[in-house]
């Protein structure tokens, strides 16, 4: 089972017991966090898609630690002008572990969309054939 969830402005594909590095969260280390913006849930082949998010679905996680990412060097240069600028930064991150994915209930709209898709595929397989117009009989008098 996996889910596509929005965490701190980014979308992640998560599953149970997965460790993920996300942008720094305001929660303390060891605290539990719940994310409600779940866009897709796959439960062993049964896919539920939200419009835009699935109502009643959530992802539970635990904040393991706050840390800084690797240093990123930003180097700017303009040739033949003597302009060189070297700068860098380290991104603030939080490491979380996914503890579980819960789905409150499947939306009814998804089932109706599935039926509509099946109907359109049947029409695509066997399209209606238009009959050619019949030729008109010409009256000939001799």
UniProtKB/TrEMBL annotation:
PROSITE patterns assigned: RIBOSOMAL_L21 (PS01169)
InterPro entries, per database record: bL21-like, bL21-like_sf, Ribosomal_bL21, Ribosomal_bL21_CS
Molecular-function GO terms, alphabetical: rRNA binding; structural constituent of ribosome
Location of region: Disordered: 121-142
A Pfam family reported for this protein in Swiss-Prot or TrEMBL: Ribosomal_L21p
Lineage: superkingdom: Bacteria
GO biological process terms held by the UniProt record: translation
Alphabetical UniProt keywords: Ribonucleoprotein, Ribosomal protein, RNA-binding, rRNA-binding
GO cellular component: cytoplasm; ribonucleoprotein complex; ribosome
HAMAP family cross-referenced by the UniProt entry: Ribosomal_bL21 (MF_01363)
Subunit structure: Part of the 50S ribosomal subunit. Contacts protein L20.
Role: This protein binds to 23S rRNA in the presence of protein L20.
PANTHER family per record: 50S RIBOSOMAL PROTEIN L21 (PTHR21349), LARGE RIBOSOMAL SUBUNIT PROTEIN BL21M (PTHR21349:SF0)
Homology family: Belongs to the bacterial ribosomal protein bL21 family.
UniProt protein name: Large ribosomal subunit protein bL21
Organism: Flavobacterium aquariorum
Organism placement in taxonomy: Bacteria, Pseudomonadati, Bacteroidota, Flavobacteriia, Flavobacteriales
